């Protein structure tokens, strides 16, 4: 029987609420204790954790009003078929999620008197958008800073003129936290959810923003004419999100884009982590590119997707199913095909980042699997001396999924040294 995840009671006054954001996707494998979703209001910031491990399904939408105690998801054991019954958890004597709310920080004092204490939601929005709470006049009780006060300040902030003409992309904060954010750029035929596996079970205290590339995920299907135009879209997206200094990480094509962004000098990038980056040479597994776009069913997609990893078991059924759903979207698939035709025509990488890397002054780490079957490890030969290479044995094209703890450790080191 599946484990029912219910909407918790987070306030004595409220009998219903809305989910602010899901931290996991339909069909994803979750671990007990992993944060599933967030609830935001001006009294508490609540993270709801998984009561058990398994495959999460039947997620309700984040814009729907949900009654306290109502089902919002179910967790199935590996291999367990999803059922149609919608009986409440209590009737089935199923475990109920214990939600833990963060308590408002104590009001601070100094020699000049009391300072208004921002609500948890106001503090989170300010942090994620790089907005200082200093000088904001709170409109809440006792001058407390609320969500509307911070949103007003964000609207007043000036954006760089160069970024306003570029199209913004879909972006999601995968993790909240303090300090220097990590911005994540996925590779070809993936989307921002590709990073969630790296964070599964990990406890990090820094913010992470993931972006869907053009022609991928929920971003526009239009394909930029070159890498610089795509970089402008990322720059506009980060300007809209009010992201200041940052660490940039990119996988595969996202790695090439990250290198170009760093070399353009329009962003305050304090460190760069390139995971199996494209653009180091002309060779690419063209059969993989064509196969992953052509295949439509899990049976035909699975063999192609298993080329991504040295150990095929890394490619989970949820990973395959997510790709199947992409292929069912004809518009998205055609956009990806146009993307591939532009940046890897005739089975050749048309983008080079070697000159970009050579001129960088910030710390640069490259992680590359020796058994990569999509981009050849041999392309790492002759990297500029300012680039540190982590050559990973028994590793394919997705080190962030094959060795997530190592990649997270390296990202932490880059942040600390920035």
Overview of this protein structure:
The protein has 418 residues and is an alpha/beta fold. The chain has three domains: 3-89 and 96-102, OB fold (Dihydrolipoamide Acetyltransferase, E2P); 114-156, E3-binding domain (Dihydrolipoamide Transferase, Irregular), CATH 4.10.320.10; 162-417, Rossmann fold (3-Layer(aba) Sandwich). Helices cover 28% and strands 19% of the residues. The chain has a seven-stranded mixed sheet, sandwiched between helices. A four-stranded antiparallel sheet has the order 1-9-7-4, with no helix packed on it. A four-stranded antiparallel sheet has the order 3-5-6-10, with no helix packed on it. The radius of gyration is 22 Å and the shape is globular. The termini are far apart.
Summarize this entry quickly.
With 418 residues, this protein is α/β, with parallel strands linked by helices. It is built from 13 helices and 19 strands. The chain folds into 3 domains: 3-89 and 96-102, OB fold (Dihydrolipoamide Acetyltransferase, E2P); 114-156, E3-binding domain (Dihydrolipoamide Transferase); 162-417, Alpha/Beta hydrolase fold, catalytic domain (Rossmann fold), CATH 3.40.50.
């Amino acid at each position: 029987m599946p484990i029912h995840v219910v909407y918790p009671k987070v306030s004595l006054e409220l009998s219903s609420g809305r989910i602010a954001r899901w931290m996991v996707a339909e069909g994803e494998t979750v671990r007990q204790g992993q944060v599933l979703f967030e609830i935001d209001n001006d009294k508490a910031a609540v993270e709801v954790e998984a009561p058990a491990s398994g495959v999460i399904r039947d997620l309700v939408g984040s814009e729907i009003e949900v009654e306290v105690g109502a089902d919002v998801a179910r967790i199935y054991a590996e291999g367990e078929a999803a059922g149609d019954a919608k009986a409440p958890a209590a009737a089935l004597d199923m475990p109920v999620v214990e939600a833990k709310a963060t308590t408002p920080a104590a009001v601070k004092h100094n020699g000049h008197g009391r300072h208004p204490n921002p609500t948890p939601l106001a503090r989170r929005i300010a942090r994620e958008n790089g907005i200082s709470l200093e000088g904001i006049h709170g409109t809440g009780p006792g001058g407390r800073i609320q969500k509307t006060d911070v949103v007003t300040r964000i609207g007043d902030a000036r954006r760089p003129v160069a970024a306003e003409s570029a199209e913004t992309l879909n972006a999601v904060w995968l993790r909240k936290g303090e300090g220097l954010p990590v911005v994540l750029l996925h590779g070809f035929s993936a989307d921002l959810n590709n990073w969630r596996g790296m964070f599964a079970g990990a406890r990090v205290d820094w913010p992470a923003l993931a972006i869907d590339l053009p022609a991928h995920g929920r971003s526009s299907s239009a394909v930029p004419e070159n890498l610089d135009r795509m970089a402008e879209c990322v720059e506009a997206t980060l300007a809209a999100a009010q992201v200041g200094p940052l660490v940039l990480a990119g996988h595969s094509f996202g790695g090439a884009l990250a290198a170009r962004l760093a070399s353009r000098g329009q962003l305050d990038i304090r460190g760069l982590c390139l995971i199996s980056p494209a653009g180091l040479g002309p060779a690419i597994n063209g059969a993989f590119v064509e196969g992953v776009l052509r295949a439509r069913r899990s049976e035909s997609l699975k063999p192609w997707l298993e080329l991504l990893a040295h150990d095929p078991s890394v490619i989970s059924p949820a990973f395959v199913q997510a790709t199947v759903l992409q292929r069912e979207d004809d518009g998205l698939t055609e956009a990806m095909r146009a993307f591939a035709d532009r940046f890897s025509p005739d089975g050749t990488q048309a983008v080079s980042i070697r000159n970009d890397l050579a001129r960088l002054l910030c710390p640069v780490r490259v992680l590359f699997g020796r058994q990569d079957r999509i981009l050849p490890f041999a392309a790492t030969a002759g990297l500029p001396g300012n680039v540190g290479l982590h050559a990973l044995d028994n590793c394919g094209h997705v080190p962030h999924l094959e060795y997530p703890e190592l990649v997270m450790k390296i990202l932490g080191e880059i942040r600390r040294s920035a």
